[in-house]
Amino acid sequence: MTEWEKMLAGLPQNDRAPELEARRLVAKRLFRAYNKTTEEDIEAREEIKRQLFRRVGKNVFIEPDFICEMGNNITIGDDVFINFGCIVFDMGEVTIGDNVMFGPRVGIYTTNHAFDPEERVANVVVSKPVHIGDRVWIAADVKILQGVSIGEGSIIGAGSVVTHDIPAGVIAAGVPCKVIRKITARDKWMKDD
C-alpha cells in the first residue's frame, strides 16, 4: 500500500514520503499561480481551480492568499465564497457544500501528527476527512480540526476551534466550539409579508 493510499484510508502514513511531497509541489505551484491573478483573470482562475481541486462547482470565488496542501482532496459545491487568507490542509478529504461562506483566515486541518515522540520524529501522521454541509457560514478566524462534520445551515462563530461534529441548523462558537442555540424563524431579518 502506498503512502497516498494509506492517507486516503485514514491509516498512519509517512508525511514526508516522496510521492506526497510531489503532490504538494503541484498544489503549491497551482495555488501560487491563482494567488497572483486578479478579479479580471476569470478564465485563468477557473482553469487553475479545475486543475487544483478534485471538483469545483459553479460560482466559486476564492480570495487570495489561498493555501492548500494537496488540492485534489478538496471538493467544493456551487455558490461558495472563500475569503482572504484561508488555509486548507487536505491530506484528508475536505468536502464543502453549496452556498457556503468562509470568513477571512479560516483554517481546515485534516491531519494530526503522532503523539508518540519517536513516531512524530519519523513523520507519522493520520488524516481524517472534514465535511461542511450546504448553506453553512464559517466566520473569521475559525479553525476546523480533523474528522469534523458541520451540519447544513449552521453558523460557526468567529475565532472558534471546532473539535467535534456540529449538527445542522445551529449557531455554535467557542474554544472548543459548542452549540449555543438553534437557528429559528426569529433570526430572520427580512420578515415574510
Automatic annotation (TrEMBL):
EC annotation from Swiss-Prot or TrEMBL: 2.3.1.-
GO MF, one example: galactoside O-acetyltransferase activity
Keywords: Acyltransferase, Repeat, Transferase
Enzyme class: transferase
InterPro entries assigned to the protein according to its UniProt record, in alphabetical order: Hexapep, Hexapep_transf_CS, LacA-like, Mac_dom, Trimer_LpxA-like_sf
Maltose/galactoside acetyltransferase domain segment(s): 4-58
Pfam families in UniProt: Hexapep, Mac
Record-stated family: Belongs to the transferase hexapeptide repeat family.
Name listed for the protein in its UniProt record: Acetyltransferase
Organism encoding this protein: Candidatus Protoclostridium stercorigallinarum
